[in-house]
Amino acid sequence: MDRRPGWSVRLKLTLSYAGFLMLAGALLLVVGYFSLSRGAHPGVIFAVRSHADLLRAFAPTATLVLAFLLVFGLVGGWILAGRMLAPLTRITDATRMAADGSLSHRIRLPGRRDEIRDLADSFDTMLARLEAQVVEQQRFAANASHELRTPLAITQTLLDVARNDLNGDTGELVDRLRAVNTRAIDLTEALLLLSRADQRAFTRDHVDLSLVADEATETLLPLAEQRGVTIETSGDITRVVGSQALLLQLTTNLLHNAIVHNLPDHGTVQVDTAVGPGSVVLTVENTGEQLTPQLVSTITEPFQRGAERIRRDHAGVGLGLAIVESITRAHDGTLTLTPRAAGGLRVTVELPA
Prior knowledge:
Distance between the termini: 44 Å
CATH superfamily of the largest domain: Histidine kinase-like ATPase, C-terminal domain
Structural class: alpha+beta
Largest sheet: 5 strands, mixed
Order of helices and strands: HHHHEHEEHEEHHEE
Mean pLDDT: 80
Strand order of the largest sheet: 2-4-5-7-6
CATH architecture of the largest domain: 2-Layer Sandwich
């Protein structure tokens, strides 16, 4: 915003200090004058014979006192204002550095807690969050570019092979191109869904999470039967306020993840909904391989799948649990992932009732 130049805050505070000091001094002198004037009788106080003589005797002293107060107020006010505004100068410098793109700088204002130091600490916290978000976005953009480049490169390779081999089997080529294109579409839709959840761009409504879990189970039941996985559901009516579509996507992603990353044969998935004090809980638990806490702590990051998962069928695009975490956060909930002692994973989503 363009603004016309004006007086600095330090100068305004200095003039304010000096003005108040001058006003207090003037009032004190007026009170002193009238106090003396009441006792101004001929030949009494300081040989003052009249009010005119009192005024002539009092005026030089009052002028000197006011001049001293003015100089003292200006100098003292300038020094005090400078000391008071010094922290704000550091905050302003940090703001300008942040505006230029440097988010690593911190104010770290020393001293005891007060309003200015609370502002500085809040600004440091904001800078730390912004820096973390920028780093996360840069990493996400790099990963997304890499993931999107892969199907495009495969498509280009297939087309080059087909152009050089005009007598080849076009049916197989079409099938492979269709698979690659489907994966690219799935990845793009997942990225859009993740962005929508991060921005909280959705309409909230009353949703029964138990019905959402039943719908997701019914949708993925053919996949579970194909992979020999048994799905068991139980729970109570769990009402929340949120997006029906996003909560369905959350539950579907959790259930899909539990089915795909399960035992080769006779695996199980348990889906439960429960009502807690002021919250509702969705739990998806599956059998599977032993998972380390270190691996579990990273699988919600975008495009993190684990060493074995990337080569499996139906492995997804690496955004399933990242989308779950984003949707949970957008609904003011908490996501907890815990490796099971017997193998597999337990995922708990707690949302406000």
